[in-house]
Design a protein that fits this description.
about 300 residues; alpha+beta; Arc Repressor Mutant, subunit A; Beta-Lactamase; 2 domains; globular
Amino acid sequence: MTEVMTVEAADPAASARRESPPSMIERMTLILDAFNGPSARLTLEDVARRTGLPRSTAHRILDQLVRQRWLAHHSFGYGLGRRALGLGGRDGGHGKIREAAAPLLHELQVTTGLVAHLAVLDGAEVYYLDKLGGRLAASVPSRVGGRAPAHCTALGKAMLAWLEPEQVDALLGPEITRFTNRTIGELGTLHQELHRVRQRRGLAFERGESYPGIACVAAAIRGAEGPVAGISLVGDIRAPLENVAPLVVTAAREASQTLFPGSAPGSRGGGRAPARARRNGTGGTAQESTWSPETMNRLLAVDGRGDWM
């Protein structure tokens, strides 16, 4: 006994190795606690260093947490997932958003005959919460629970426009993929487009950037902390979406006011544009509920190809 105690006293690590390792739940908690905020982004090395876990152990648990949606894995590292962000519930915490938007989506679809979407931003993608369609629904390649790249969809651009540029870069990574010959393929060009979205008071457009033959107009549902979701109308690439654009922005504003009474865009003290946009005077407040053709012409700049830019 004396000999064993002498060896352990000389080698504290030997004593530590004899102790039972923390349980899986304790290790998972250590890892989740390493993320000190909803916007925290950590690499595998960061997690191992902060938790004191072996790199291989941290990697294995990270993979499990990603599969269970406690964490999300992006090109820039790991971040908290929908479960860890406290959204809870079987619907990922999106029930209130769906409830606020449902009558507005129905009205948009019935009024225009186009396909109406509700989506949230999830990393570098949009995640579809709802889709109302009519005869055009089958021709639009989207589905509830499906995803699409944020940088080439009007929904994604409408929400990305209200994030800080650094946040956009972190979400999308250094390279973005082209899906058609119309897709924006460079971050610099995308930032220029997001600036134009803000100048258009939140209106985002795309024509054939995600899928050939499909066009879309969207606006973000915003609260005091930024975008929480987006509403869009989708149709054939030849559809005159500028005619229905005011309806989309009005619906997004009404959903914002339902979800965040007193703090939504257009109310006092809420829905602020990114700091850089505010400094440049491009943030704007809520749009007019009815826009004249002259107002639309000022908001929509058309390039030489006839695309919205």
